[in-house]
Amino acid sequence: MSERQLRAAADLSYDALTGLIKGDLDLIWCRGYSPPGVYEAAGPRIETACDASTYTLTPDFQCVGVSIGEANESLEKAEQYVAEGAATTRFIRESLFAGVGSPVDRLLSQLDALWPTGAEVALTRAGGPALLNVIRRWRSGGQANPHIDQRNSDILGGYAFTRRLGVNVYLEVPPENGGGELELWDTVVDDELEYLEQRRHDYGLDRERLAAPDWTVRPGNGDLLIFDASRVHGVRRLTKGQRVAMACFLGVRGADDSLALFA
Ligand SMILES: O=C(O)CCC(=O)C(=O)O
Ligand SMILES: [Fe+2]
């Protein structure tokens, strides 16, 4: 455990985002960002879509949408990412969140309003829109290895991001003592080549080779968390219930460049 207290902001604001980008802040934690009615309506459709999905990197969780992490691992997935991104974004927006609105769409318009040069969906190297977000579902027994999400990817070739912020909206979390916390280590990895050398063959780092996480954060249903994706992070193994979260990333360049969202 770190001696240092986790530095968190309770609201999404320009100052909080720049705090995360500069490293003065560790977390933005907005409670109840997605109201209960949203998941009540969308949950059954999301669960069906999760059951129909295929995720190639790990059996630990299901994932709606080919993520950029998956796309970085093979040519086939990279092609699928480019071909399907826009349609998956539409499916999530128009089918899964029909009638209630997607929390990530709301986030996108909020960011567009608060960031000086706006926010938009990133473009892939091929010119079309990237996938805006994925939806992941963990069931009892699932976890996520400690990892970082690397700043840049050939697929989003036109950007040189200086920071990549990880965004999660938790639609459903396990009950008390059921695991599924977000684990954060007091380690920010800037040398991505060194990280690649230590990486497991599937994804992430060996948990056994790290000290215990410095902080574990237990989001509530509907909460929004944003953190620096180059900070080592993982998901604690679930022992009960399920954990359903929408995830995307904010690609940051300078203050003079718009935020680019992708998943
Ligand atoms: O689901 C979570 O809490 C973290 C997922 C994650 O690794 C990320 O958002 O980069
Ligand atoms: Fe991550």
Automatic annotation (TrEMBL):
Q: Keyword annotations for this protein? A: Iron, Metal-binding, Oxidoreductase
User: What Pfam families does its record include?
Assistant: 2OG-FeII_Oxy_3
For whether the record's keyword set contains Repeat, the answer is no
Which PROSITE patterns does this UniProt record tie to the protein? FE2OG_OXY (PS51471)
Q: InterPro entries this protein is in?
A: Oxoglu/Fe-dep_dioxygenase_dom, Pro_4_hyd_alph_FE2OG_OXY
Q: Does the keyword Ribonucleoprotein apply?
A: no
Where, by residue number, does the polypeptide cross the bilayer? Answer: none
The residue ranges of the Fe2OG dioxygenase domain are: 127-252
Family note: Belongs to the iron/ascorbate-dependent oxidoreductase family.
Please report the name of this protein according to its UniProt entry.
2OG-Fe(II) oxygenase
This protein's species is Streptomyces violaceus
Q: What is the lineage of its organism?
A: Bacteria, Bacillati, Actinomycetota, Actinomycetes, Kitasatosporales
